[in-house]
């Protein structure tokens, strides 16, 4: 729309010329092609620059605001009430809240509070589109107070979103709101930007699952997930409350059906968010400063130890949605139970978990373990907690401590078990063992005396002066002399994915995946090229050269980036 | 359950055609026999159905326009509480909330009022003159007259009774003053100047807790300096760089043609990637994972001390607070909610750009300058029970008895000044698991024009004659215009192909339904009968919400003729009068008749 379509002849050599940008100094003949045709774009596209709307999609809510704001202006939660007909006012009827049983039949308990499920099989995509549309319309009229002129959108979308869902989202946006372009950003990167760091280890305690993503130099390098998230917490809370409800009603042995729900989803969720908390780790205060790996923020030991035992008083928990209203008296320790079961499950053996249901501390530890050494050292001191469950009191600290403990106990050694232990303690093999247990950033220095090893290559590598790595040089030059934090566990606060995206958009950094309306309507998701076919350099260069008027989408190839990876 | 009054919803024709198809597992079989039956129970249907009152009408496109298919323009922004008009420029800078003294109670969302907090001895005295004489005394608080919440509960008091918003922005809960970014900067400068102890000041800065706004601002400046340093051409990425007029562009172009040598030195000194933020001045915040205080507080205060989800969601994003992972939790962390601004919007047809609704710009006025509501263009449909076999005495009166035929009277009222022909179509059975049989006794009829009421009254005899006119009127000549026939029960029989009653601009017809039984054990039998398809599985899950509602999808097609004017003449001059133009409008609507009793 904003682009001169006529000048859109895809130049096959353009990408090559862009790689050889003049930044390289003496990099041979420099290229006149660098100023993309985009500089001649009509100035009308500048006007569209005025309002850039950033939308963060979550499973439970939608956050909407203008780029450059520090926080979203409006948050829309998905709920069954949102899916009613216009003019259906039954929510205001007096007995509406008591009717939850009828409502929760059929549609699984609480599923209608979600925008989508990652299992696309049973999902009606059109409905997802409708929900998005209605939520966005509400956000635009209620919170952003904007009219329906087309505006450019920036979407923060999980990068593992199935393509049908991505497609329906973009369809809805393009058909109903007519934005000239939609740019896609991935939440972990936005979070890293929102924290001011380039590499991060993001623990997203989300609704449907917990996703652990490692970001290294603004790239997602590793991700793993576990179903232990907000939904499971709510379900555990329900299980927990139902159990105590049965006891209170004097029928403790009444085995209720798995699918039967004693309490409404809304109430369980409310209790989960209000009262459920997380006990501190058993290992909290055992941080050894000399370990180098796990310097936790110093903590008064007695303070923590005394804490959980002190309040043994019962907390009244009023339940309204039970068959008859009742108030349960639950102790504080009991209220930590759902959280314990959901996120840690310490009673079970570590080997009893499947890959998709790892307890969080193991998930984080394993995920860190799988990272390359340098990346791990960088990431482990830039842990960002985010997601809805990060607000469970004490949970962040608990995960942090458990992971620190695991790291201290096992080191960063993927191999463990009795055999390894024997091998390690075996005095006969002691010589070789020193290298094996090498950990963290001290790895390189720990081998000064290994020159006598039989391995000749090793010998050479240790003594030659390292080659000058231009990339490394560059990295070093930008920094000032202040030391970076490496190799120690540290948590960093991020402003959040929305704010990060707002920052990115405000700084006008172009996104790799920017979809043009006309092209999308013509080609749909099938028209997208693989991200590797698109030269990212073209896009990144345009940050300098013609960043404001995007020069890429008008060309033949466009990509959905990581979102389009099938 | 409140008794259900029959209702009508209209589906805006703008919705995707895909909505019309049946959804879910039942889709294939239904598409086979009737490809386009609209299912009011499909979850997507809820998004395209509107009561008639919500719909607008474009006179030029002759089409219904629903809230989804209009283009909106904002006439004014205003605060719903003080009705103060807010200029649109303020909106960008000051956000979407009222920046005067309008606040909502964070507990019950009632309006808060500013009251003065008199000192104790004054209030104990009953000296009225004192109060009237010095109402300005003391600090001020916000109080809710509904739930008695007051801002003292979160420790907030104001010095002045006006511009509360500005005062509140500088106050933290508990009354602590919050520094603005400017003040913070000044203070730091002072600290640097006052002593040579630069190092301690810097280290202090590293661990400083920033509120969200400050952190964002710090990050922003950090990134901007980094970008300026690291971007290769020395481009500041400002808007000015785009044109050829800017010196930056010139140097860049020069550098392009001179092989980059012009830039080399500079570039080399600057090249580098952005580094990360290193301290709180640059926006980096080390997370404080210690939440023991909050846990302790939770244990002390219990459920009552915490906020409900509803209250949390109503809280505006409080930028002046340290990152709380998106929300506050305790009642002591509540903030008064400034009113969200509202807008008055004019609406345009997205196709022809004609205005179809335009409110008065004045805040106090609720009138509209232009407003083309659909109700004055398309016939309204009202539903009335005609002959409904009574349910069991215990059931509410609106309950329909399953498997017993019930008759409903549909009254179509014509709002336009032309005679319209109406054609109705319904599926023989309602879609869904519990298929009720539907018969429209008279699916085709015409409604007389909405002529002047006085015409009608003056030509009383004429009216009588017309009512009995030939084919379709009921043959009860003695009934006066106002007499309702359902009282006569057996005398007045509904007949197929005949309308029930006709008035000046309205026609009543009869719809007969046989509600299906809601018994789940019968479902396998009926499902086979109705669906006819090879459905392997019959859904016998318990009754879902609203599944006992008897809703009939009905396709309404109305045709009328207008005096052709302008360019559209000649489109359809086939009718008897030469300058007439034929118009038609077709849409689905849903009639909710009642709840089927469980028996």
Automatic annotation (TrEMBL), chain A:
<feature type="compositionally biased region" description="Basic and acidic residues">
    <location>
        <begin position="473"/>
        <end position="482"/>
    </location>
</feature>
<feature type="compositionally biased region" description="Polar residues">
    <location>
        <begin position="436"/>
        <end position="449"/>
    </location>
</feature>
<dbReference type="Pfam" id="PF00022">
    <property type="entry name" value="Actin"/>
</dbReference>
<protein>
    <recommendedName>
        <fullName>Actin-like ATPase domain-containing protein</fullName>
    </recommendedName>
</protein>
<dbReference type="InterPro" id="IPR004000">
    <property type="entry name" value="Actin"/>
</dbReference>
<feature type="region of interest" description="Disordered">
    <location>
        <begin position="289"/>
        <end position="317"/>
    </location>
</feature>
<dbReference type="InterPro" id="IPR043129">
    <property type="entry name" value="ATPase_NBD"/>
</dbReference>
<feature type="region of interest" description="Disordered">
    <location>
        <begin position="428"/>
        <end position="482"/>
    </location>
</feature>
<feature type="region of interest" description="Disordered">
    <location>
        <begin position="1"/>
        <end position="43"/>
    </location>
</feature>
<comment type="similarity">
    <text>Belongs to the actin family.</text>
</comment>
TrEMBL record, chain B:
<dbReference type="InterPro" id="IPR008603">
    <property type="entry name" value="DCTN4"/>
</dbReference>
<feature type="compositionally biased region" description="Basic and acidic residues">
    <location>
        <begin position="458"/>
        <end position="472"/>
    </location>
</feature>
<dbReference type="GO" id="GO:0005869">
    <property type="term" value="C:dynactin complex"/>
</dbReference>
<feature type="region of interest" description="Disordered">
    <location>
        <begin position="458"/>
        <end position="494"/>
    </location>
</feature>
<keyword id="KW-1017">Isopeptide bond</keyword>
<feature type="compositionally biased region" description="Low complexity">
    <location>
        <begin position="473"/>
        <end position="486"/>
    </location>
</feature>
<dbReference type="Pfam" id="PF05502">
    <property type="entry name" value="Dynactin_p62"/>
</dbReference>
<keyword id="KW-0832">Ubl conjugation</keyword>
<comment type="similarity">
    <text>Belongs to the dynactin subunit 4 family.</text>
</comment>
<keyword id="KW-0963">Cytoplasm</keyword>
<dbReference type="GO" id="GO:0001725">
    <property type="term" value="C:stress fiber"/>
</dbReference>
<feature type="region of interest" description="Disordered">
    <location>
        <begin position="179"/>
        <end position="208"/>
    </location>
</feature>
<keyword id="KW-0007">Acetylation</keyword>
<feature type="region of interest" description="Disordered">
    <location>
        <begin position="20"/>
        <end position="39"/>
    </location>
</feature>
<keyword id="KW-0597">Phosphoprotein</keyword>
<feature type="compositionally biased region" description="Basic and acidic residues">
    <location>
        <begin position="179"/>
        <end position="191"/>
    </location>
</feature>
<protein>
    <recommendedName>
        <fullName>Dynactin subunit 4</fullName>
    </recommendedName>
</protein>
<keyword id="KW-0206">Cytoskeleton</keyword>
<comment type="subunit">
    <text>Subunit of dynactin, a multiprotein complex part of a tripartite complex with dynein and a adapter, such as BICDL1, BICD2 or HOOK3. The dynactin complex is built around ACTR1A/ACTB filament and consists of an actin-related filament composed of a shoulder domain, a pointed end and a barbed end. Its length is defined by its flexible shoulder domain. The soulder is composed of 2 DCTN1 subunits, 4 DCTN2 and 2 DCTN3. The 4 DCNT2 (via N-terminus) bind the ACTR1A filament and act as molecular rulers to determine the length. The pointed end is important for binding dynein-dynactin cargo adapters.</text>
</comment>
<keyword id="KW-0175">Coiled coil</keyword>
């Amino acid at each position: 729309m904003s682009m001169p379509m006529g000048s859109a002849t895809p130049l096959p050599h353009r990408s090559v010329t862009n790689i050889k940008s003049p930044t390289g100094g003496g990099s041979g003949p420099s290229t006149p092609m660098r100023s993309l045709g985009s500089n001649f774009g009509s100035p009308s596209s500048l006007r569209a620059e005025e309002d850039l709307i950033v939308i963060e999609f979550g499973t439970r809510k939608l956050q909407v605001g203008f780029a450059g704001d520090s926080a979203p202006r409006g948050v829309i939660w998905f709920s069954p009430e949102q899916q009613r007909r216009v003019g259906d006012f039954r929510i205001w009827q007096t007995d509406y809240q008591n009717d939850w049983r009828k409502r929760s039949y059929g549609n699984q308990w609480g599923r209608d509070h979600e925008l989508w499920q990652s299992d696309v099989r049973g999902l009606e995509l059109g409905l997802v589109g409708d929900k998005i549309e209605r939520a966005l319309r509400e956000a635009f009229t209620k919170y952003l107070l904007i009219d329906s002129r087309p505006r450019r959108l920036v979407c923060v979308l999980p990068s593992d979103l199935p393509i049908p869902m991505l497609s329906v989202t973009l369809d809805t946006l393009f058909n109903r709101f007519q934005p000239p372009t939609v740019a896609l950003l991935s939440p972990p990167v936005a979070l890293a930007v929102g924290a001011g760091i380039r590499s991060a280890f993001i623990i997203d305690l989300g609704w449907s699952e917990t996703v652990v993503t490692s970001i290294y130099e603004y790239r997602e390098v590793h991700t793993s997930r576990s179903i232990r998230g907000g939904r499971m917490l709510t379900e555990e809370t329900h299980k927990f409350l139902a159990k105590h409800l049965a006891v209170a009603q004097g029928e403790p042995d009444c085995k209720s059906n798995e699918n039967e729900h004693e309490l409404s989803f809304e109430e369980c969720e409310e209790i989960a968010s209000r009262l459920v908390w997380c006990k501190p780790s058993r290992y909290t205060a055992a941080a050894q400063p000399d370990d180098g790996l796990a310097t936790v923020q110093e903590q008064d030991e007695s303070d923590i130890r005394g804490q959980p035992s002190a309040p043994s008083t019962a907390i009244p928990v009023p339940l309204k949605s039970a068959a008859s209203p009742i108030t349960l008296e639950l102790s504080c320790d009991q209220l930590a139970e759902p959280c314990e079961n959901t996120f840690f499950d310490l009673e079970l053996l570590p080997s009893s978990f499947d890959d998709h249901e790892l307890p969080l501390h193991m998930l984080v530890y394993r995920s860190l373990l799988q990272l390359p050494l340098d990346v791990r050292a960088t990431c482990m001191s830039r842990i960002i907690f985010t997601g809805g469950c990060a607000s469970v009191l004490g949970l962040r600290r608990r995960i942090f401590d458990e992971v620190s403990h695991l790291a201290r106990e096992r080191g960063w050694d993927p191999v463990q078990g009795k055999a390894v232990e024997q091998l390690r303690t075996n005095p006969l093999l002691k010589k070789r063992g020193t290298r094996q247990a090498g950990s963290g950033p001290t790895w390189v220095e720990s081998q000064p005396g290994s020159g006598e090893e039989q391995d000749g290559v090793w010998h050479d590598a240790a003594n030659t002066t390292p080659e000058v790595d231009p990339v490394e040089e560059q990295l070093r030059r930008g920094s000032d002399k202040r030391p970076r934090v490496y190799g120690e566990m540290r948590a960093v606060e991020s402003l959040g994915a929305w704010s990060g995206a707002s920052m990115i958009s405000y700084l006008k950094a172009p996104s790799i995946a920017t979809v043009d309306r006309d092209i999308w309507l013509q080609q749909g998701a099938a028209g997208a090229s693989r991200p590797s076919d698109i030269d990212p350099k073209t896009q990144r260069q345009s940050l300098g050269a013609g960043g404001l008027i995007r020069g890429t989408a008008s060309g033949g190839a466009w990509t959905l980036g990581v979102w389009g990876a099938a | 359950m409140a008794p259900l009054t029959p209702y009508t919803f209209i589906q805006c024709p703008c919705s995707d055609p895909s909505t019309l198809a049946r959804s879910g597992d039942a889709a294939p079989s239904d598409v086979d026999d009737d490809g386009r039956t609209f299912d009011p129970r499909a979850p997507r249907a809820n998004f395209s159905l509107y009561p008639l009152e919500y719909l607008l009408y474009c006179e030029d496109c002759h089409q219904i326009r629903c809230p989804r298919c209009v283009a909106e323009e904002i006439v004014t922004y205003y605060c719903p509480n003080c009705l103060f008009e807010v200029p649109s420029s303020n909106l960008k800078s000051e956000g979407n909330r009222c920046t005067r003294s309008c606040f909502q109670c964070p507990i019950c969302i009632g309006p808060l009022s500013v009251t003065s907090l008199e000192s104790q001895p004054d209030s104990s005295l009953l000296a009225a003159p004192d109060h009237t004489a010095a109402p300005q005394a003391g600090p001020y608080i916000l109080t809710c007259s509904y739930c008695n919440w007051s801002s003292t509960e979160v420790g907030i008091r104001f010095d002045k009774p006006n511009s509360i918003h500005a005062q509140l922005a500088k106050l933290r809960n508990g009354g602590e003053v919050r520094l603005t970014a400017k003040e913070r900067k000044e203070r730091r400068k002072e600290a640097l100047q006052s002593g040579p102890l630069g190092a301690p000041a810097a280290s202090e800065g590293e661990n400083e807790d920033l509120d969200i706004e400050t952190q964002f601002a710090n990050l922003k400046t950090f990134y901007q300096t980094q970008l300026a340093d690291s971007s290769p051409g020395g481009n500041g990425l400002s808007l000015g760089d785009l044109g050829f007029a800017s010196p930056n562009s010139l140097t860049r172009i020069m550098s392009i043609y001179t092989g980059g040598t012009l830039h080399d030195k500079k570039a080399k000194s600057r090249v580098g990637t952005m580094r990360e933020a290193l301290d709180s001045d640059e926006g980096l915040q080390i997370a404080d994972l210690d939440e023991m205080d909050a846990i302790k507080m939770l244990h002390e205060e219990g459920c009552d001390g915490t906020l409900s989800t509803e209250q949390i969601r109503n809280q505006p994003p409080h930028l002046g607070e340290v990152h709380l992972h998106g929300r506050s939790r305790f009642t002591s962390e509540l903030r008064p909610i400034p009113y969200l601004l509202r807008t008055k919007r004019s609406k345009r047809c997205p196709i022809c750009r004609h205005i179809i609704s335009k409110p008065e710009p004045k805040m106090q006025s609720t009138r509209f300058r232009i407003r083309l509501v659909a109700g004055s263009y398309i016939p309204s449909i009202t539903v009335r029970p005609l002959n409904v076999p009574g349910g069991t005495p215990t059931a509410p009166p609106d309950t329909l008895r399953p498997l017993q035929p019930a008759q409903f009277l549909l009254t179509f009222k014509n709002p336009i000044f032309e005679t319209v022909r109406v054609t109705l179509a319904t599926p023989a059975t309602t879609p869904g698991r519990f298929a009720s049989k539907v018969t429209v006794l008279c699916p085709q009829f015409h409604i007389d024009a909405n002529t002047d009421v006085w015409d009608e009254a003056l030509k009383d005899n004429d009216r009588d004659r017309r009512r009995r006119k030939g084919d379709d009127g009921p043959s009860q000549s003695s009934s006066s215009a106002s007499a309702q026939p359902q009282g006569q029960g057996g005398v007045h029989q509904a007949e197929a192909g005949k309308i029930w009653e006709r008035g000046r601009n309205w026609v009543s017809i009869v719809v007969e339904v046989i509600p299906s039984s809601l018994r789940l054990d019968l479902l396998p039998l009926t499902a086979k009968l109705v669906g006819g398809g090879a459905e392997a599985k019959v859904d016998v899950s318990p009754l879902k919400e609203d599944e006992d509602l008897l809703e009939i999808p009905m396709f309404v097609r109305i045709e009328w003729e207008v005096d052709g004017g302008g360019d559209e003449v000649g489109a359809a001059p086939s009718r008897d009068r030469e300058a007439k133009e034929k118009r038609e409008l077709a849409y689905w609507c849903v009639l909710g008749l009642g709840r089927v009793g469980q028996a």
